[in-house]
Specification:
Elements lengths: L2 H12 L4 H14 L2 H11 L16 H12 L3 H11 L2 H12 L11 H13 L5 H15 L2 H11 L9 H12 L5 H11 L2 H16 L14 E4 L3 H8 L2 E6 L3 E7 L4 E4 L11 H10 L5 E9 L11 H4 L8 H7 L2 E11 L2 E2 L5 H11 L6 E3 L2 E4 L2 H13 L4 E6 L9 E9 L10 E10 L8 E10 L4 E8 L5 H11 L3 E2 L6 E2 L6 E3 L4 E5 L2 E5 L14 E5 L2 E6 L11 H15 L1
Parallel strand pairs: 1-11, 6-8, 14-16
Antiparallel strand pairs: 2-9, 2-10, 3-4, 3-5, 5-6, 6-7, 10-11, 12-13, 12-17, 12-18, 13-14, 15-17, 18-21, 19-20
Helix pairs in contact: 1-2, 2-10, 3-12, 4-5, 4-6, 4-8, 5-6, 6-9, 7-8, 10-11, 10-12, 11-12
Bound molecules: adenosine monophosphate (AMP).
Length: 582
Amino acid sequence: MRFAALVDVYERLEGTTKRLEMTEQLRRLFQAVPIAQIGKVVYLTQGTLLPEFKGLEMGLAEKLVLRALAFTTGLTAGEVEGMWKRLGDMGTVAEEILSQKKQRTLFGAPLTVQKVYDNLVRIAQASGTGSQDEKIKLLADLLHDSTPKEARYILRIIVGKMRLGVADMTIIDALAAAFASKEERGHVERAYNVSSDLGTVAGVLARGGLEGLEEIHLQVGIPVRAMLCERLPGLEQVFEKLGKCALEYKYDGLRIQAHIGRGIITLFSRRLEDLTEQFPDILQELSLAFKGREAILEGEAVPIDVNTGALLPFQEVSHRRGRKYDIAKVSKETPVHLLLFDCLYLDGQELIERPYTERRDALERSIKTTEKVRLAETLIAEEPKDAEDFFEQAIDHGCEGLIAKALDSPYAAGARGWQWIKYKRDYKAEMADTVDLVIVGAFAGRGRRAGTYGALLMTSYDPEEDLFRSVCKLGSGFDDEALFSLPEKLKRYEQEGRHTRVDSRLEADQWFEPALVLEVLGAEITLSPTHTCAFEAIREGSGLAIRFPRFTGRWRGDKGPRDATTDDEILSMYRSQLKKVG
Ligand code: AMP
């Protein structure tokens, strides 16, 4: 397949915000792609080369990209850099230079998807001495044969800013429509949820149809997309929804999915990053505690005070993510304990479709608890009064609250549903519960804040429409250090104009790709004509806003933008607030 044909579709996708239209464009694309290439096309559309958990990175710093562009086009690196500063997007820079400068020869071979993909993989894989030159050469080779428009997307993939605004769920819809039917999308989603790999799912589906998909099972070493929970403001509501259920402590740490193979343990985060290197202490302890041959277990890694044995706040463990420092020293100073709460697979038996009770039994069977690896505290309860003491105990132990789990529910990978419901301590006070919001824009700072941002435009997430809807302007709660590091931290997400998946009536001075999530505490939720969160759910012409929002100091690096607090959650917080007042 010609790369130009793919790029035409990308351009059309960029030109629309309508999900149905995107799905239709993608459906046509998937039906037109040769089967052998459909996986690659799916990855490229996601702006990547392989599923995220494989951890393949381009390894081409922006400086090198500038050099490669200069090298192919005969401009100086300084000139290219000047354009980049002006245009703010490496893709547009490449497109512009190529359309001005390039003398396209009649002999330039048209690019194919295969060639682009192969070169990009080789760029990512080149390592060691001489690899930087090699990467530049491979990129130059692609640019030599590419049209300006093709260059735009090649560069965007390289710098990790594809920004087509296509959610995984839209790709799933399109795959279902292309190779099965819309009604059968659930099968496609299931395969994705257990394999976390849309490229492979696409290939199997295109080749073998729905029957083929049934062959995709969970596998030790390949992360399963996490089951998520809903929230309710009171125990009464929890029991109304679930009846007799299991209650578990809600630990405040980092979610870990442990894949135990024969002799190898791999740890994944909730976002499917490989965390194995960061937790040598857990690896060791888990191999002592695990009694079976192989398993996929889930739990929460919680930092512990070495002196008192008490659970510590989440921040103490969050800084282990992605940092390169003396892990051995850190594991000694702030050890973590792993509190296990689920078992998805054990010794040849797939448990993901089995009810909670059976999975918990398997977990108990397979673990001999040690000091550092234990099972989440649990209680089977029939009504709120059975739960009250347990809730107080959980708080007393430093937990955030409880998670109630339906006894008969399977592990719903990748889904947020009412089978798991969190109930947190602070609900009782007005909006004392925090929300996790996504940064999509910023307003320039004045006075003491000149040179940085004065406020950030924050959004909640609407999964129905795949939109980020504005809910407040956030300016307080930042200390000086956090405040002045904002422009630097946000720089890589900058973009011209509002992102296609952002719904806002406010015009920010600077827009960003929705990427970073931070935790916010507000005084209350109010109706607002300015903000678009849960728009018109309560009153015509009004959305919901968070009044007096403050940053709690906690960056939710463990959450992706689509894991943020949803419009519906904010709506139900608003309603429960009203009930309290009334
Ligand atoms: P939240 O991040 O507030 O949406 O809460 C859900 C998170 O709570 C999960 O992703 C887990 O990381 C964490 N968690 C803590 N304890 C448990 C538990 N017993 N069962 C399930 N999740 C838990």
